[in-house]
Amino acid sequence: MVDDDIEIKPPIDLIPDEYTRNGNFNFYVEAFFSDNDESAIELLHSLEELNFPVKRTALDNPVFDPEWITRVQKTVNDKEYDGILLLFVKMHLELQEMKNIWSQFTAKYCPKLKNKPKIFIFQVESQKGRSVQSDSTARKLKWPAAYETPSEADILIIHDKYDDGKTDLLRQLSANVKEYGEQENIITLISLGFQCNYQPLLISTMTKSFFFQFHSYRGNHLNIRKSQKWIMKEIEKLKSQNLQ
């Protein structure tokens, strides 16, 4: 029996092109949420465990304040960050307000974020008198106005309509990051675990894959790597038994 370690390297053409960074400590993350929101706190804890420096802005009411964006803009323009993730949790936001948020972080206003991932998660509370229904793609949201795609690359916008505690994007995302964060990118993690009629709406101009966790193998190659380790352990067990 051969004792040398077996190494399976993924083909170069199948290695995903991902946004690179030296750790998570230089990625700007800020969440705007009620400080008693357990699902938001759970997700933020998960990100902090991965060494993301999370800034928490507690809300007295779920109403957007334009001064937040002015402050964040100044921060990301004063330092060289690897990217930005902003979470707006269970807030009352109109489509135009959301556009006013993500559009302020394009290269025109934040040149240091050019070619870097800019991720916006909008978890919008359902408002009385507002018609929200599923469309032919079984998305969770359908806005009364046409969807608008950013004209700049490297932006991911996630729209999630929150109705009650039964289906919470942040709770599911937190679980997915822990379970599949090494293997799957953010778009897959957002989609995992939801029934088709509860899928959040994703608008992406991302040119690469964004991962929360680091690993030299991704996707199926990570599965192969894990299987390889399990096989080698089993072989070692058999070898030990034969020596007894």
UniProtKB/TrEMBL annotation:
Mind telling me which InterPro entries this protein's record contains? Caspase-like_dom_sf, Pept_C14_caspase, Pept_C14_p20
Picking any one GO biological process from the record gives: proteolysis
Organism listed in the record: Dendroctonus ponderosae (Mountain pine beetle)
Lineage from the top down?
A: Eukaryota, Metazoa, Ecdysozoa, Arthropoda, Hexapoda
Q: Which domain of life is it from?
A: Eukaryota
Name the chain's protein: Uncharacterized protein
Task: Please give the Gene Ontology molecular function terms for this protein.
Answer: cysteine-type endopeptidase activity
Pfam family membership, one: Peptidase_C14
